[in-house]
Every structure is written in structure tokens, then in C-alpha cells.
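Render NADH-quinone oxidoreductase subunit N in 3D.
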Amino acid sequence: MIDAPDFSFAALSPLLLVLGAACIGVLVEAFAPRDVRHPVQVGLALTGTVGAFVATLLLAGTREVTAGGALAVDGPTLFLQATIAGLGALSILLFAERSLDPARSAFVVSAAVPAGSPRDRELVTTQRVQTEVYPLALFAIGGMLLFVAANDLLVMFVALEVLSLPLYLISGMARRRRLLSQEAAVKYFLLGAFASAFFLYGLALVYGATGSVRLRDIREAVTAESGGVLMVLGLGLLVVGLLFKASVAPFHSWTPDVYQGAPTPVTAFMAACTKVAAFGAILRLLYVAFGAAEWTWRPLIYAAAIISMIVGAVLGLTQTDLKRMLAYSSVAHAGFLLTGVIGFGAGGDGSGLAATMFYLVTYGLTTLGAFAVLTLVRDGDGEAGHLSQWAGLGARSPLTAAVMSLFLLALAGIPLTAGFTGKFAVFRAAIEQGAWPLAVVALLASAVAAFFYLRVIVLMYFSDPVADGPTVGVPGLPTTIVLAVTATATLALGILPGAVLDLAGRAAIFVG
């Protein structure tokens, strides 16, 4: 007889709120009149994400393993779930923006209409929108919340698919440049399928080596046997699958194409939330299951961090499209985050874990704000993404240029911004664990990456405006809220980061 596992519905309330809102959103799509779907879906999505954020705050201090040991609700889980829910709510606001151009939305009216057809050209100017993006985004957020709580490799794989499949769909729903958007979605799907296969094969090898897929049982087997060939190979394949989702070089090839082709609100959503979820899974896998066998994963993470920082910084210099530049910025920042992962070290005190979680908060807020600004600068074919189109923006729209400069300086790690505090925390954690060569490489990569951020600022303030240059739209209420929150947080976490750093430090304890 099989006993039903015990569920703590209170501990799982953030996940249940988001997935419940997603299921209701599917029913709204099926039964609600078209004219009322958009406000209902926006309200439902915000209710689910904000409700999940509040639920994580109410659960603070909870340390519990539930669902038969498959899910762990502890400090890192709740901290990362709060981060994902908060960034998800801000992303939903970007999805809801409909006041920047005659098309009224970044999303296609009907994804089933062939790109370039007469019907497609006719629908470009309509105010209708494909509202399925909201339940799809909620399912992706639900998968992310499950991903960071997974205490079982099979649950982790299911969460990986739940968060990935909706992203493949909404990446191809851009209203303009639809062929580029659909190409990006296909690339993302095909490469994501390979990454999932790597993860699943690694899961099978780890199960063969340890006899279990539970992280606690794997840890006990690793501690008792000190590893084996199957276990090491399986861990390598698991990490490859997760590094793909985190856009870590050399598994980053999808990132620039998908960032450029997807609707900009979706790009912001992926850049902020998916990064948090992927690193949450990496941290739990390495620290909980393989913390006693650090020798198996430390060289791999060390090499991936160096490659990612170098590739992101160097290739970012060559980009002329802002979305592709921010994509390579994401690759470089993934390397900086891995520096914090290395900072946990053998017998570490959790400082590397706390620093990495804090960095995820700062990076998510800053990146989301940068993409929100990008939606405001527009030409006749949507967002003005080419660097030359941003020349003289400081004279044309001083406030927009100032806000973008703040986010770029934060991404560069300039003092008094959140980016500096985050980098300082992960670099210090790495140095404390003896990984000072990695910290030196990270500092050099930061200096190189700062060049392409500062290049945009120089273009905005020290170049003459283009005569027929792009227009700067007046943001609606949703985008205004996003910009206000992200800009304020970027400054606050750079000047007074103590409260959030202390919160991350207190949360940096896993329960197996």
C-alpha cells in the first residue's frame, strides 16, 4: 500500500496562488468575452504574483520539507521565491503597457496568423492583444517557484519544463518583426530541448550511482562513497542543463538571438526571473546534494565562470544592438554569479550563498529597469534598438537618458549603485574561500564590460541627435511604476544595502 505524502498547504501557498491564478486565467480565455479579457487577465496575474510575494513574507522563518520530501521550504527557497514573485509582478506590468504606440501592445493580436500576410499587416494597428500571454507567464512563474524549492531531481526536471515551455511560446508573440520573433522562439525551443535531455540523462546517471533522486539521499550516498564515475558524469550533465537555463557560456548561444527577437517585456521577464530560478536550482543542487563532494563540481563551475565572464565582456563590446548587448551583459553577469557560488567553498559559512542571492535581487531589478527604458525609445518599426539611434537622447529626453544611465552604471558596478554592492559581496565571498584568481578575472572582466555600458551613456550625452531619430514615448502607469520601483531600489541597495544583505544572510541556510 502506498501512503499519500503529507502536504503543507501553508508552506506551498506562494506556488498554489500563482498556479491557481494561471488555471483561472485559462478559464477566462475560454469563457470571458474578448473585450474584458485584458483587464481581467492583468488583474488576475497581479493578484497571483503579489499574493505569492506577500505569502513568502508571511512564511519567513519556515524550515520544512513537504510533499513527501520532494519540496523544501527554507530560507533560500523563500528568499528566491519572493524575488521571483516581485520581479514577476513588475514584468506583468510591462506586459500590460498599451500606451506607447498605435499598436497599443508589444504582443501580437493572433499568433495563428501567418507573418507578413495581409491579415497580419491589418492587425498591426489594432488595439486588440493576445491575452494568453498572462496565464502563460503565470505558469512560467509557477515553474520558477517550484524550481527553487525542488528537493528531488525529478521534481526539478518537471519544474524546468513547466517554466520553459511557456517561455518558448511567448518568445514568438512579438507584434512587430514577427519573423525574427518566431525564429528566436524556435531556436530557444530546440536548444532548450537539448538542455533538458542533458539534465534528464544526468538525472538517470546520478540515480544509477546513488540509488535515489532525493537530494538528501544523494548527499548521504556521496558522503559514504566519496563519489564515482557515474556520479561525476551525472553531476556534469545536470549542471550543463542548468547552466543553459542560466545563460552561462559556453551554453549561452540562444541568449543574444532570443533576447533580440522576443517581445521586449518578455526579454525583461526572462532576463530577470529565469536567471533567479536557474541559479536557485544550481545552488540547491550543489550545496545540498553535492556539498560534501566539492571536488566534483568546483573545477567545472570555476571554468564556466571564467569563460562566461570573458565571453560576455568581450563579445558585448562588438554589439551594435542594445538588446544583444544586454544579452551578453547577462552572460557576463552569470559568470559573476558563479563567483559567488564558488565562494561557498568547503566548510563555507554561507557568505557565498547570501552574496549570490543578494546579487540576484540587484541584477534582476536593474535589468528589468533597463529593458523598461528600452521600450520607451521607439521608431517606426517598434523599439529603437540600434546604438546609433540613441545618439543625443540626453538632449531629446533628459529624464529617460538619466534613468537609463543609472541602470547602465549599476550593471557596470559603479559605487553607490546596487550593482557595486552585489559585485563586492560575491567577490569578497570568493576571496575569503581562496578563489582570489577568479576574483581577479572578475574584476578585469568588469572593467572591460564597463566600456560598453559607458559607450551608451557617451552616445546619449556627447553625440548630436539624429535628425530623423526615434521618438521617446510617454510611459503609461504600468511602465512608470516599474521604472519608479527599479530605479529607487537600484539606488537604495547601493547606498543602504544593509537590511537586504542581513536578510539574505539569515536566509542562507538550506534544509535537506
